[in-house]
Amino acid sequence: MSKVKIGAIASGSGSNFEAIIKACEEGILKHKAGVKVLICNKAEAFCMERAKNHNIPHELIETNKFLHLPREEFDKKMITVLKKYDCELVVLVGYMRLVSQSFIDTFNGNVMNIHPALLPSFKGMHSHKDVLEYGVKVSGTTVHFVDPQSDHGPIIIQKCVPVYDTDTEKTLGPRVLEWEHKIFPKAIELYCDKRLHVDGRIVRIDGDVVL
Fold first, then answer.
1. Total domains, the chain
2. How far apart are CA 171 and CA 188, in angstroms?
3. Which residues, given as ranges, of the chain have pLDDT below 50?
4. What pLDDT score was predicted for residue 43?
5. pLDDT in the model for residue 73
6. pLDDT at position 109
7. What is the pLDDT of residue 31?
8. The pLDDT of residue 37
9. Residues near 2 by Cβ (< 8 Å), separated by ≥ 6?
10. Which residues, in sequence order, are CB contacts of 33 under 8 Å at separation 6+?
11. CATH code for the domain of 24
């Protein structure tokens, strides 16, 4: 069985990017997938150092240099890179922009994102802050297929994480992140094993999922 070729897009540190790389190198994805390229849209982002450390090609396409372009035109630049490396699956690993429908269609809907909360609750960039202010007792993380709306596409897999009365963003965040690093590779494994079937908003999974 040929390995699934993954293209990653990130804007920041890229710890989920690192988790996926390690899963491909020595974990559950070792014989199933490989990360072929990283695209980064911010010049100072540490994710590019992670790519260098693993000898993964990386390309910088700075958002700030193309603010005059419509989103579809910016996305075409990323598509060119991803197609160059023959990527089948695209993972957004802390990419702080929306992607266009044309981008999603180019990859037949095979674009995944991870969010540090239990969608559809607490969308956006400040989920831990919002969780704590709302006072919920459970938060978590979600991997979903991407659509043009923010944190909106069909949900693949979720993991609950307790919220304690003493929590702050600095204590809740790392506890959620620990599970992000586990469920994103698991979602990719389910894709590689052809166990995911999208039916409207419902992602049906063949068999049980063990985390």
1. 1
2. 27
3. none
4. 94
5. 95
6. 96
7. 96
8. 98
9. none
10. 3, 4, 5, 6, 23, 24, 89, 188, 189, 192
11. 3.40.50.170
Structure tokens at 183: 């469920």
pLDDT at 1: 66
Both tokens of 34, joined, read 């490989």
Is 83 part of a structural domain of the chain? yes
Q: Please name which of 115, 67, 108, 72 lies closest in space to residue 90, comparing C-alpha atoms.
A: 108
Q: Is residue 210 part of a domain?
A: no
Is the residue at 74 inside a domain? yes
Catalytic residues: 115
In a domain, 123, yes or no: yes
Rounded (10°) CA dihedral 140, 192, 106, 101: -20
Residue 59: domain span: 4-205
At CB < 8 A and 24+ separation, what contacts does 193-200 make? Answer: 193/32, 196/156, 198/109, 198/145, 198/154, 200/154
pTM of the model: 0.96
